[in-house]
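Example record used in the benchmark description.
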Amino acid sequence: MQTVTHDNPAAALTTDLPAAARPAEVTARWRAAAAATGTGDRAVAERAVRAAYRAGGLPEPAAIRWFGSPLAAAGAATELRAAGAQSVREAVRTRPWEEARRLAVEEVGPAGWPAHWALTGGELGPVTTPLADRVRNAVLDRLAPEADRAADVAVATEARARRTTVRLALLDAVRGHHDAPWFAAFEAAGPSAAAAVAPLSESAREAGWWWPYREVALLSERPTELHRDEAGRLDRADGPALEYADGFALHAWRGMPVPAEFLAGLAEVSVERIRTEENAELRRVLLEHYGYDRYLADSGAEPIHRDETGVLWRIVLPDDEPVVMVEVVNSTPEPDGTHRTYWLRVPPSTRTARAGVAWTFGIPETAYHPQRET
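Model output (structure tokens):
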């Protein structure tokens, strides 16, 4: 990614792309920016932050402080807010954002906005928004854990007050690269909308979340590690799926939050370990990692139905709905002449293999009559 060094942030925007290619091109660049890891250009980020203050009619912050993660920056923001610091997010982020959206709708037309959003923000939102929410919730839980139900009244009251303060501090945040869906929509709409948030978009390319207060701006670094699956969900079996330089990290398996120690034990998963896992969600993770076919073989499971379409299996789990799978064999041979077996998870109410296969096509069993299965 090219480092931007323009004094005027708006000058850094690319506005000469062909109209037909522009939304896809802009969205691709912001997709990359949202997933960027490692230290960005601090000088560029700081210059953009100062420009954002000036654009909001404010004097530049007397100081800019850097932190290794949103967790550390949010902790500092919480202390500043408790000490009476004044957030200037309204001037720095809210007002220019509203102006950029107004101009974007004006440039593409009210009737064209839904389609424009679908090609830009709609492409990025399903990935970046859940990730931003995960970061926010993790920061909240680590800075202000909810009081244990057994805690006395005074402890519970203090915990609730602390949690409220942290929530308010998180509302002061500018989400930087996690606002990529909106930056893509504004930039692709045209130069006027892009220019309205140019300082914010420039800082988002080089830094993570940041907090604007009247005297000081708190900036956090981008993550050092980001691992996702094909669907864009956080996913890693051998370490943090999202990690920052100061150690703040999130662990996840196919989008589901899991404890770090849970992942450490995946290498030694057994049938008994799966059976005895009390948490139903974690049990499903163990099953996926172990493999449904392997579990069926190793647990001595019996098929409940078979016909010309395949074999229906049921895995009964304690305190959870049963896992029902259809085993099907691809009729088209592989290059080596073998036929690949697939396992299709179907609803627990499925009673026949044909009904299960039909369900995967979205049709009732009575309507499933393939001339040739592949």
